[in-house]
Amino acid sequence: MKKLINDPRMVVREMLEGLVALHPGLALLAKHDVVLRSDLPAPASRQVAVISGGGAGHEPAHAGYIGAGMLHAAVSGDVFTSPSVDAVLAAIRAAAGPAGALLIVKNYTGDRLNFGLAAEIARAGGIPTEIAVVADDVALRDTVPKERRRGIAGTVLVHKIAGALAELGQPLATVAAAARAAAAATGTMGVALGACTIPAVGVPGFTLGEDEIEFGLGIHGEPGVSRQQIASADAITDRMLEIILGEGGHDAGARVALLVNNLGGTTPMELAVIARRALARLREQGLIVERAWTGTLLSALEMPGFSLSLMAVDDDRLALLDRAAAAPAWPGAGIIPRAPSLAAAGEAEAADETMTSADRLGAAVRTAALACAAALEAAEPRLTELDSKAGDGDLGISMSRAAEAIRASCSADRSDSAASVLALLAGQLRRAIGGSSGPFYAVGLLRAARRLAEGPSTGLADWADAFAAGADAVSELGGAQAGDRTMLDALLPAARALAEAAQYGLPPARAWSLAAEAAKAGAEATAMMKPRLGRASYLGERALGSPDGGAVAVSIWLDAVARR
Q1: Which pLDDT belongs to residue 345?
Q2: Which residues are marked as active site?
Q3: Domain with 203 in it
Q4: Fewer beta carbons below 10 Å: N end or C end of the chain?
């Protein structure tokens, strides 16, 4: 286990100290792990105090939601452990006045016991105190009664509803009733791709296979309701929404708010893919998505996974969600377009350069190109692995996209000459491949096509010249030379072998085989070259031992050409 902490026994306190040090609107109680607003007025002038909390490990919940328009205080226990009665009571006494306090409690036994007893003591001491329990986990619909379900990410929306009403000066009974109604109108479903590790434990809470996910889990590192084989993001999202919507109350025309929550280890890229599908699916079902948020809102340490929360809204509830909140972690208004906006291109797409050569080799070049496509597609896993060792990892998918572009070009193009086919391939690859590979292959093919178009292009010497011209173009564009551990360390030996074969009058089939062998040897030699250009250069000697992925890709497609 690797954690950036000092002492597991002090991690919660130090985390809260850091949070308060970063935000001037927050204060930390000296003797309890309780964070509260630093701008609270004298008790007699206070609004209803909205207080939440629970175990740590759910950051930015709960202290991140303290601020005008949301919580007045948050109580933190140890990681995934309910805070003590005394800590909750200290929060009530520090934040509440005669208007009383509302405790928003996630439906776990420890939280209900400790918050419940603290509320009872507070009432006995003259502080009106109510509790709103959040039990939004629909994954447990077939396992436990509704009132015993867990409280998970939908709690954040309940914070917002209650906090907005308290900020408006509403009485405790009104704030509590609205919070309970909002909790009842919310359903949440979670899924994990892996477990999290509690600092004091040091090992993950469960183990998943490479192709497994935990479906319907809570927020305390526990396993889910079922273990399933991983599917696409769209399929997982659809299944989760099916279960949430299965609760009823979301007929066509219903208005909802959506929360796409990171459980800790999911990238913004993945969350956006999920949000895209969730919005589309809800709209397909005839629902009106009034507001949507995405981000890390209530996590489970570093757990890779996400949850979806759906809250039914009307004008009143929507107005409360829309009210401004000064809490550091509240993600903002959540206003979304009614439909995705796709802008038209600002200008016509640039046309590919066209050229012809004095030959009838277009069909032969297309056949060779298709062989290259098949070879690159089959090599995607290997190229991805090699590129990952250089700190990147996109070469495999780039070459797979190149294969798709080659097929598309060859199926649509019926040009007779080699130069015309190569020029069209240059344009297709330029558009299809991102990163550095696209420009390199495009410039190499385009320069080779120009050489073939300049004069005779039927002899091996002409093709050797064109190949060398293409390699030179790659070198000029990127600035690399032989020995820099790049694709040129395969291209340049192949160009020399082809030129020598032409000089000695070898048959074309033998010449291309020698070029492919030279490219393979050149690619293998890069394993002992220290990179001097590109992202691999940042690794220095740590890159030694594995060949350069770009050079290997060259050797793969040249071998395919030779075999054809």
Answers
A1: 61
A2: 220
A3: 11-322
A4: N
